[in-house]
Amino acid sequence: MQAAGRVCTIERALQVRHWGRDRQTDEMVLPYFEQTELYQSPFLEKRNALDREQFKPVVDEFYALHGWDAERGWPTRERLRELDMEDVYEPMVAGAAMAV
Predict the structure, then answer these.
(1) Which of 11, 36, 70, 83 could covalently link to 49 via disulfide, CB atoms 3.0 to 4.6 Å apart?
(2) What fold characterizes domain 2-38+47-99?
(3) Stated pTM of the model
(4) Which residues pair with 75 in a beta bridge?
């Protein structure tokens, strides 16, 4: 579990550092899923679309499970410390500032 946490967190930190990845970037795909499905599943009563308000808590929980800041979607200093990767935090933040 520790190794998997390190992999997911370093991948996210690199995305933040090099491209300024944040929650807003993650949510850019939501309009696509808010469109009603073209085809109805035979297992469901109707065609569905994503309800953004219902989905927001799911994203919050995803970030919390990873130890990332819910507002920005960035790995927190505390999480990086837990994973023995605290030295990643400052370069991540500095890179994100330049990526914007």
Answers:
(1) 36
(2) 1.10.599
(3) 0.84
(4) 68
What number of other Cβ atoms are within 10 A of residue 65's Cβ? 10
Distances (CA, A) of 50 to 14, 61, 100: 29, 17, 29
- Please, are residues 4 and 79 in contact by the beta-carbon 8 Å criterion? no
Give residue-wise pLDDT tens across range 3-60: 999 999 999 999 999 999 999 999 999 999 999 998 898 998 899 999 999 999 999 9
Q: Which of 81, 78, 64 is nearest to 23 (CA)?
A: 64
Burial of 84 (0-12, 13-18, 19+ CB in 10 A): exposed
> Residue 93: exposed, middle, or buried by beta-carbon count in 10 A (0-12, 13-18, 19+)?
middle
CA neighbor of 49 nearest in space, from 23, 62, 31, 61? 31
Return the percent helix, strand and coil in the chain, to nearest 5. 65, 0, 35
